[in-house]
Amino acid sequence: MRMAPGGDCGLAPLDAILRTDELWRRPNRAPDYENENRALARLTQALGEAPQSILQTLADTMLDALNADSAGMSLLTDDGDAFYWAAIAGGWSPHLGGGTPRDFGPCGDVLDHDAPLLFSRWEKRYPYLAEAVPLAEEGLLVPFRVDGKAVGTIWVIAHSEYRRFDAEDLRQLESMGRFASAAYRTVKLLDAREAGRAALESLARARESEHRFHQLLQALPAAVYTTDADGRIDFYNEAAVEFAGRRPESGKLWCVTWRLLNPDGSPLPHEACPMAVALKEGRPVRGAEAIAERPDGTRRWFMPYPTPLRDPSGRLTGAINMLVDITGRKEAEQRQKLLLDELNHRVKNTLASVQSVVIQAAKSARNVEEFRHAVEGRILAMSRAHDQLSRRSWADAELQELLEACIAPYLSKANVVLDGSHTIVAPRVGLMLSMAIHELATNAAKYGALSTPSGRVELGWSVEQTKDRRTLHLRWLERDGPQITPPTRQGFGTRLLERGIQVELHGRTSIRYPMAGVECDIEIPLTPEE
């Protein structure tokens, strides 16, 4: 399928089929490092076991890892006039060996732009691609280079409108593109080595080939090292040095790491590590996890992929191991567990708070309508506080943002003034303060300064630092409203302000009722982390 174009007359312009900018506007996914690591491990194993088929393995891996309908690799011909499809997987497999012109096709556009491109229905511009069925609804192409020179592309295709590629697909495809470069060079090198052996070339040529092979392993982004048949380390790349936090001594047995631990934290002797098992039992080891401790005491979680190496007669000659760093994934799992534990705790506390609100409102309400308003307002106040806290994943809360959410209905009238420094409080403090300020604002709107246009409320706060403690001071002052008199009975709002602050936060509340307006002072001790 190497048809030359007949001119651009009547064909869609390139911009009409490019959708690259949409990648960043589509829903954002978190990086799937586990999926990427599995793909790289599969490719590394294939590179050690069947290097001659690495390009097809790359296409198969891209197809599976990115959930594509077709995937493949395009390489420039020796004369540079066209691309040929060197490996294909999926729906386009029957087109293996086909290709496109260099000067009029998607692959050529990618090399001309020197950047990844996302195409949609490219047969509208390149009619000859209408023969490549099933038709491509979308095609995501990434250039790959050898020794800094672009020599082709790798690509994935969606044949249905239900599959849409996004920025995470591009990130993983570019990662596999970097591997494609090393793999392609490896295949070329191995071809050269086989040709050299067939021609009985000199030992110097063989040593040079080995040196180049090691250079290829140096280019890989993952930690890789090799051993001889006895387990003595005879090569490691710089990524392994960075991972291990040290430069291993050549000839040491089994591992590049300083100290190993099992996932439960117990010591893992080097002679029992996955690399030792692979060599002693003559089989690849998969699915293991371990912890590497560096000389400086830091630790990294990893998955090893040790694979025995054999000569053409089947004799064991050594092994290759790739260490995939999964520390980020493990930390994410731990954060998720902590978040779920915190969520369970918050749900229980919230249900208890709602129950208390309903019970207290039922005790003090004179009729059903008063009960409904009391419960509804307080639950809405809790909801606003929860909204602010959830935006920060319940890690902390910015006090001014929290207070503004509590009195949002009154801010538009410009009769509420907030004055305080940037202050971060823990979720438990933020939730109780939200309830307290809601009670003060509701009371002021019914009977106090917020019930008249001339009324004013000043809400200020500060943090006092003493030798052994930090204390949050918050003051509510009402002015220019109707004259007030002290209440004749203590309602739920007053009990919340006084007893809630004391019981929940070990704080103190002082409420006064001068004729000029309600005054309320709240003091809350803050823990060191707050």
Describe this protein's structure.
The chain is α+β, with helices and mostly antiparallel strands and about 525 residues long. The chain contains 14 helices and 20 strands. The chain has helices at about 15, 35-50, 55-65, 105-115, 165-200, 205-220, 240-245, 275-280, 325-365, 370-390, 400-405, 410, 425-445, 490-505; strands at about 70-75, 80-90, 100, 115-120, 140-145, 150-160, 225-230, 235, 260, 290-295, 300-305, 305-310, 315-325, 395-400, 415-420, 425, 455-465, 470-480, 510, 520-525. Helix 9 (about 325-365) packs antiparallel against helix 10. The longest helix is centred in the middle third of the chain and has 38 residues, at about 325-365. Residues about 1-5 have low confidence and may be disordered.
Can you give keywords for this protein?
single chain, 530 residues, alpha+beta, seven-stranded antiparallel beta sheet, six-stranded antiparallel beta sheet, 14 helices, disordered N terminus
